[in-house]
Backbone:
């Protein structure tokens, strides 16, 4: 059995998971490494942050996903070194370092928040890239509203209840919309301990002169209109120049008094790509061949957000889940082809369109880049798509029930501030002191 | 409106919550103070610890419970001083200290784990008294099994997968049973990365010579038999004399190699009772009059686990939820009677019996101290009772769905290790180092 190849996949996101599922069908041993013991359904992170879903509704244990596939093992840990000459990977685990040899390696650790080198923003902003981010943001907002409920200083109270979201992409829109709904349907009623009544603001900042840059103009306008009809204030051409614990400063000098800045204005490739000593391109992305191979790095493939690959028109493929999935599957197939000495396939993206949701019954969708949907119909399309792709039947069922329940009642039951001291993080402590 | 009395309730457990609900019907202002922003349905904490339920399924935001009751306000914070002469309470909040005056005060902060002064146990054991405890234990067990999955040293692996529960009361039985089911139906299948196959042990230690001390002998025997038929090892007359990060030492010299000791061998009154400068009795409990008043402390009532009160036979009322509820309601009614100058009522416990669950389809119940049920019928009674009393319809629905789903599939989906560094706690780190 010396010929049974060993594949290591780093990252249990969409690219890594689909690659592993593809490889499970064949005669290879797969070691899947991740720093979490679960896969995260990232498109719904904002729903965890806004108290609509439990963390476990959008996260699924990796070992459960592969419980019947004996050829796939899982290791919980951080990769610290990739020795691409010796073909081995070093992993920092709870019990120390482990070294694992590979015949084929797939890099699929995705992307992280990009603060574009602005340290003040990085220090004070909340990202929304993983489950810890989402839980931190949830705790932060709930703690601010507990403060606001007892604050008799109107200016202070307004600052505590002003939530700023930066970035006019789908994540920014979804987050801003969900935050306003959380306030409007839940917090407004429950956090009015003192007079005068609380008024919260949710402000969406976009540096360019339109939202949803890659969408047709009609959908851009519809998205803005829907956000505003919901209650979100949209500020275009609004570039953040500085952030402190209690204010957001714009490039034109305007100041927004707020303790909460959610940053969804950009991503950069996971820093793991640096371990390959390859020159990276825009946003730290790793250039790959159309076969998903990394040039001059024998046996190494990459897929998903951390890769850079252009289509036949010279346009880079976007950092989206469908791209990651399809690249992961192609990488897996190509490893098997390479092993058998066959010709490798090249990536071509099967693209069904793009969509963004804005809140209850509000969304925009551009199906197959032909059909433009707005409002309730677009929202239904979004709902259906997300339910279909959610991993695991149990999760799908529970997410669906939570959604229907929320839709009917505006209930947001997942409003727990857990483990005050330990889950706070730097930003919380500072904001709290400022509010004091 | 000078005559509208102000009631402060400390603690949003069962006693405090039921008192507040009672007071909401009358012409009084209530301030409810708790260190968490949610009420916890404590009987199901062990299900959170064993990955069967989400934290939010057994916790409900206090503000939601009272969203329609304008006379009830909520304050998130820790009470640091009770000035019973001046009738005021000092609360440490996120934004500093707040002082609140009361006409009537209800102490209802319940109980905490009792380690009986054994520092080694306190340092290394896991309690199971609040949601943070439950989440810590969940993370700890999952991390140990991740280690065990890769351990090639059989002795080390056995220690990692040996879970010890101390205490033969209902909580100990439930926890031991649920831990074994977690292993037997989930972890066993998913954590077998290396040969030989993993064998976990769950050991229940009880210092006395029988389980469930206050139950009839027939139910005691049935409980032990059901636990053993499940797979739990029951050790009677087994007193813990020392604990280290990797072993449990019994009084007779026996040593159990284990990294996990769950301590459910006793509770003591919440330390808040010391603030009243009243002499406490067994387990630090605060003696109360049958009216739930604290003698010589004008306007102060107490209810629930932290109180000490004897029935007409001179037997102390047990520290159980139904007692807490009924005492909370009586305390609230007596405050109103005192305000109106009426005669106060005295506590008499309406007792419907006791029950303990042991696992899927296994339980014992002693209904009205007449009907003795064991096995599936007792389990159905337990299930029904808990569903009926769970707070809030949404939670009830979601808990019910999770249960039915778990029952049919043995699924345990809530197996997330979140926020590795921040939620670890001392015990985790030590265990991990030992295992290294």
Residues:
């Amino acid at each position: 059995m010396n010929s049974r190849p060993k594949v290591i996949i780093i990252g249990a996101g969409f690219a890594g998971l689909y690659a592993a599922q593809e490889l499970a069908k064949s005669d290879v041993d797969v070691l899947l490494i991740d720093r979490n013991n679960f896969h995260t359904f990232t498109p719904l992170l904002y729903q965890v942050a806004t108290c609509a879903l439990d963390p476990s509704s959008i996260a699924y244990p990796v070992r459960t996903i592969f419980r019947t596939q004996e050829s796939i093992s899982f290791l919980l840990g951080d990769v610290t070194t990739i020795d691409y000459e010796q073909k081995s990977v070093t992993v920092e685990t709870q019990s120390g370092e482990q070294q694992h040899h590979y015949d084929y390696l797939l890099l699929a650790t995705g992307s992280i928040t990009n603060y574009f080198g602005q340290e003040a923003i990085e220090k004070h902003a909340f990202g929304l890239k993983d489950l810890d981010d989402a839980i931190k943001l949830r705790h932060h907002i709930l703690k601010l509203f507990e403060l606001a409920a007892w604050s008799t200083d109107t200016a202070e109270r307004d600052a505590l209840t002003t939530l700023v979201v930066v970035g006019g992409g789908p994540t920014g829109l979804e987050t801003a919309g969900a935050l306003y709904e959380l306030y409007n349907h839940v917090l407004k009623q429950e956090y009015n301990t003192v007079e005068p009544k609380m008024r919260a603001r949710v402000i969406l900042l976009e540096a360019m002169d339109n939202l949803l840059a890659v969408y047709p103009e009609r959908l851009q306008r519809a998205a803005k209109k829907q956000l505003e009809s919901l209650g979100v204030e949209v500020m275009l051409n609004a570039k953040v120049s500085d952030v402190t614990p209690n204010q957001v400063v714009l490039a034109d000098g305007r100041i927004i008094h707020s303790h909460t800045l959610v940053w969804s204005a950009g991503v950069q490739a996971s820093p793991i790509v640096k371990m390959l000593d390859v020159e990276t391109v825009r946003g730290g992305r790793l250039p790959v061949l159309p076969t998903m191979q990394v040039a001059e790095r024998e046996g190494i493939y990459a897929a998903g957000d951390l890769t850079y690959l252009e289509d036949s028109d010279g346009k880079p493929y976007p950092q989206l889940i469908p791209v990651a999935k399809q690249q992961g599957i192609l990488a897996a197939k190509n490893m098997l082809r390479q092993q058998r000495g066959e010709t490798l396939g090249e990536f071509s993206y099967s693209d069904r369109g793009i969509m963004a949701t804005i809140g209850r019954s509000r969304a925009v969708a551009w199906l197959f880049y032909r059909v433009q949907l707005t409002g309730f119909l677009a929202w239904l399309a979004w709902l259906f798509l997300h339910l279909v792709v959610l991993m695991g039947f149990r999760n799908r069922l529970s997410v669906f029930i939570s959604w229907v329940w929320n839709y009917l009642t505006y209930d947001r039951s997942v409003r727990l501030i857990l483990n005050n001291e330990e889950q706070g993080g730097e930003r919380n402590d500072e904001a709290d002191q400022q509010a004091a």
